[in-house]
Specification:
The complex is a heterodimer of chains A (341) and B (235). Chain A has 341 residues and is an all-alpha fold. Chain A is 38% helix and 1% strand. Chain A is built from 13 helices and 2 strands, in the order H-H-H-H-H-H-H-H-H-E-H-E-H-H-H. Chain A has a two-stranded antiparallel ribbon. Chain A is globular, with a radius of gyration of 23 Å. The N and C termini of chain A lie far apart (59 Å). Chain B is α+β, with helices and mostly antiparallel strands. In chain B, strands 3, 4, 5, 7, 8, 9, 10, 11 and 13 form a 9-stranded mixed beta sheet that branches. In chain B, strands 1, 2, 6, 12 and 14 form a 5-stranded mixed beta sheet that branches. Classes of the chains: A mainly alpha (341), B alpha+beta (235). At the A-B interface, loops of A face strand 8 and strand 13 of B.
Chain lengths: 341, 235
């Protein structure tokens, strides 16, 4: 009898623990037909408490030295978590950076972060802007003091981690978990791929052109293979940005930058690592001008791209099918008004 | 009642007068950037008057809202708190046309240069308040009220650029300002100059090429901006 009772109690305990952990898990699903993410969700599953904490920290300017700049200042959800209308992003004290803040989407499929891939993990990435003098300009110790002073944060940290003290690893993990939830997969293109809709004739023509000329670097369905490529942009003498070579010190990597995803372009202008193109037409004009030139011989842009004006418009029409307003306005990763003001 | 042969025409005449005075008319206001009274086009290089220095403006956008016509004796039109995003270099967006009950035009026209705190704290909107316009900052800072960008030959910033994104609605750094303009005679078509030489001081641009957050610098600049509006035709 005692034996059976022991089994029953153990069974009940295991059931309770399992259901609690399931309740705490934040659902994350790979969109159908997409490649497996690089991030190991099985080893490091998302937890709702941590995702929520990360979301609050993402939007809170408390992370910056003078509480004026949050992650969302340069990565607005309404702009696909990019920095619209700014060629170069800026930080505290109106300091200006060298590059345009990239869109934070599809991070689970990336093995390195930033335009030059300097960070191999998202955890390193989250710390960099907080401590960079041209971005948030703060020290991590001071961030922890400020956050741990706030009772609302202490409650959230306790809910997520069991005790109420935020540490640097917990700060990194919670922001990382929030960032991993930023997946855009509900554009018109996606619904066409799921056979729920059809392209218009113009969009279909544009899609054919895209597959012929753009797909090698901007591979479907992520619309990037996240490789580092030269794309014929002339360097800006004032910015002195060598791209990937600054990290690898390999001259082959001079002026190589990470290929961004083409999802949500409507929301994330301007374009390129230094935001030099304000419109997609300028981008298309650039590629039809440089592809096949001497400088790009041997690269994936080694062949000329010749497009008539109508074809350029068709291509543009297709690119606009990659916009996902559901992602842009998703309240699940929007500003947490209920807590922050 | 016996109607004479003149009664109906007289009645029709009286009726038409009453109707036309109730119909009102169209009111249009248009913004034109100028430097020392000379029109400035987008990316057009112009001399600042300081030696051989030159400047170019590459973007100039701002909000106007809260339109009023204080000296008009007739009832003020409703729904004038709408925000308009003015792009002085876009002929489709550098002017606004309204239907007003003042058939002969107005002698005083006032507007808020920027957005009031309610619009700032209501979050994003559609149309001119759509964040795609590039004028939305964050929830804590609200909207950018005035954005001017360009380059200055003596500038020290990257690419010699200057960028002033002026906004903020929280005290003491609120940057919304009331602007009132006058005309001697009632006028339906207002051309308003934005006299950039009264706003941009080349000496300041060369040493402080960026203001991109709420604060005392933004307040100082917005006050210069608010005083730079002048009705064209005003002596």
């Amino acid at each position: 009898m005692n034996f059976r009772r022991g089994y029953l109690i153990a069974f009940l305990l295991i059931s309770v623990v399992w259901s609690l952990s399931s309740f705490r898990q934040h659902p994350w699903q790979k969109p159908p037909g997409w490649p497996e993410p690089i991030y190991d969700f099985r080893m490091h599953p998302l937890e709702s408490g941590k995702v929520y904490l990360g979301r609050l920290l993402f939007y809170d300017p408390i992370l910056s030295l003078d509480s004026s700049v949050s992650c969302a200042s340069c990565h607005s959800p309404y702009n696909a978590f990019a920095h619209t209308d700014h060629a170069l992003s800026h930080g505290i004290g109106d300091s200006i950076g060298r590059r345009n803040a990239p869109a934070l989407q599809l991070l689970a499929w990336q093995s390195a972060f930033m335009w030059d891939g300097r960070f191999a993990t998202l955890d390193e990435q989250t710390i960099f802007p907080i401590t960079h003098t041209g971005e948030m300009g703060e020290e991590l110790d001071h961030v922890l003091v400020k956050v741990n002073r706030k009772i609302d944060y202490r409650k959230l940290v306790a809910g997520a981690y069991g005790d109420s003290t935020l540490t640097v690893p917990r700060l990194q993990e919670s922001i990382r978990q929030f960032l991993l939830t930023l997946v855009s997969s509900e554009s018109k293109y996606d619904s066409v791929m799921r056979k729920e809709q059809s392209f218009t004739l113009q969009e279909q023509k544009g899609y054919s052109l895209f597959r012929k000329h753009c797909n090698s670097c901007h591979a479907e369905p992520l619309f990037s293979d996240f490789s580092y490529e030269k794309n014929g942009l002339s360097p800006d003498p004032k910015l002195q940005d060598s791209g990937r070579m600054e990290i690898t010190r390999n001259t082959e990597d001079l002026l190589r930058f990470k290929t961004p995803s083409l999802r949500n372009l409507r929301y994330s202008a301007p374009y390129m690592h230094d935001g030099r193109f304000r419109t997609l037409r300028e981008v298309i004009a650039h590629y039809t001008g440089v592809a096949g030139t001497e400088a790009l011989k041997g690269s994936r842009l080694g062949k000329r791209i010749i497009l008539s004006e109508n074809e350029k418009t068709d291509l543009l029409a297709f690119l606009l099918t990659l916009n996902d307003s559901k992602f842009i306005f998703d309240p699940a990763h929007g500003f947490p008004r209920e807590v922050l003001h | 009642m016996i109607l004479s042969k003149y009664s109906i025409p007289v009645l029709l005449f009286v009726f038409s007068i009453g109707t036309s005075s109730a119909q009102g008319g169209q009111f249009k206001f248009r913004f034109c950037p100028k430097w020392v009274k000379n029109p400035v086009g987008i990316t057009q290089q112009f001399a600042t008057g300081m030696g051989r220095d030159s400047m170019r403006i590459t973007a100039l956008r701002f909000y106007v809202s809260g339109l009023t016509f204080p000296n008009e004796n007739q009832m003020q039109p409703e729904n004038l708190n709408q925000a308009y995003l003015i792009d002085v270099f876009d002929t489709n967006r550098n002017q606004v046309t309204l239907d007003l009950p003042f058939a002969d035009g107005v002698t005083t026209f006032c507007f808020t240069f920027g957005l009031d705190s309610m619009l700032n704290t209501s979050g994003i909107g559609e149309g001119d308040l759509d964040p795609v316009e590039g004028m939305y900052w964050t929830w804590q800072s609200g909207f950018i009220h005035f954005k001017i960008e360009g380059d200055y030959s003596m500038g020290e910033g990257p690419k010699q650029r200057f960028e002033y994104h002026l906004g903020g609605y929280r005290s003491p750094y609120s940057t919304a300002r009331q602007v009132c303009l006058h005309s001697e005679k009632p006028t339906k078509d207002w051309n308003i100059a934005l006299e950039l030489d009264r706003f941009l001081d080349p000496a300041l641009v060369s040493v402080k090429p960026r203001v991109m957050s709420p604060g005392p610098d933004a307040v100082r600049l917005i006050e210069r901006g608010a005083s730079a509006f002048k009705r064209i035709g005003e002596p």
